[in-house]
Design the sequence.
């Protein structure tokens, strides 16, 4: 449900694999517009045509439904196993449960929930805690995945006492490109013209996912005038004053070697547009590591929306291996 940027990434990724089929898409946009946007993404993949309200490619047919809210889509009739809610709007439990009532076996949220749900799963961190009975699941956010992986890697290798993060984030679809009245003062300003300070929920959720950091994390966001490519700026207070920049970089290289699909390391002088198309949860910037005083280390890592879409499908696959529950199955 929802074929915005993340939803279209998911569709293109499904074209590359044989284990996932997009059976239906529900979106407020007209099917003709959705088809047009998919073709304009510039991503490689098999041809896609619109035939009688179906998106058709060489692997599967996708029923197109111009519906706006959870509960309106008959998922059981459409024969789906899991619903991915990529709208970014319906984050409350009551909305997600509406998907279950209309036949979804599970609901995977591509953003952080606004209410407690069954589980938040971050690949590489806590997927082992998932159980087949989970029905409402969040795959976190792109920032949450990057923060959790970077923090856990540095803590396990070198020991982190506490940390503060700032995400320098590409503007999102819920921001206006012109000044326009919003419920928040700063978000009423043009995303295309301003650096906009913003709150961010990732640190709070990472405290729950990594309980040893409860009460030891803080987070902030700066939304900046770029369309894609975001940067995580993490300041860690290390437990050992002797930690060096070289040790930090070596720890990240080791993690990238062990988890190449999740973590990358670059020694190049990259900028935000260079990371467009990155499928990992984070690309660690080895040139940017700094030591301040005796115990403070600054680390930078790049990430973008395609990497998060890859993690969403990782979560879908993980629950598929655990087995089905309810729904159309």
Sequence:
């Amino acid at each position: 449900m929802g074929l915005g940027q993340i939803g279209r990434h998911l569709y293109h990724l499904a074209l590359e694999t044989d284990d996932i089929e997009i059976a239906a898409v529900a979106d407020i946009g007209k099917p003709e517009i959705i088809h047009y946007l998919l073709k304009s993404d510039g991503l490689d993949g098999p041809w896609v045509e619109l035939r009688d309200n179906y998106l058709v490619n060489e692997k599967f047919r996708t029923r197109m439904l111009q519906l706006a809210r959870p509960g309106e889509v008959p998922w059981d009739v459409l024969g789906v196993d899991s619903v991915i809610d990529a709208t970014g709007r319906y984050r409350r439990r009551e909305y997600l449960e509406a998907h279950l009532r209309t036949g979804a076996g599970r609901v995977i949220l591509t953003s952080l929930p606004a209410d407690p749900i069954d589980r938040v799963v971050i690949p590489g961190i806590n997927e082992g805690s998932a159980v087949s009975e989970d029905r409402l699941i969040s795959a976190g956010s792109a920032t949450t995945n990057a923060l959790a992986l970077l923090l856990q890697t540095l803590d396990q290798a070198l020991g982190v006492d506490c940390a503060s993060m700032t995400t320098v984030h590409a503007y999102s679809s819920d921001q206006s490109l012109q000044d326009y009245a919003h419920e928040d003062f700063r978000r009423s300003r043009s995303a295309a013209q301003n650096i906009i300070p913003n709150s961010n929920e990732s640190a709070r959720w990472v405290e729950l996912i990594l309980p040893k950091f409860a009460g030891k994390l803080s987070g902030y966001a700066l939304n900046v005038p770029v369309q894609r490519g975001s940067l995580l700026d993490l300041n860690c207070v290390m437990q050992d004053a002797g930690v060096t920049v070289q040790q930090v970089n070596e720890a990240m290289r080791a993690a990238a070697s062990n988890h190449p699909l999740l973590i990358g390391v670059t020694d190049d002088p990259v900028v935000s547009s260079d990371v467009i198309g990155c499928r990992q949860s984070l690309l660690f910037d080895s040139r940017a590591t700094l030591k301040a005083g005796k115990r403070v280390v600054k680390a930078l890592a790049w990430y973008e929306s395609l990497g998060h879409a890859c993690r969403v499908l990782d979560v879908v696959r993980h629950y598929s291996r655990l087995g089905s529950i309810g729904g159309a199955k």
Remarks:
- The chain has a mean pLDDT of 93.
- The longest strand covers residues 160-170.
- Residues 305-322 form the longest helix (18 residues).
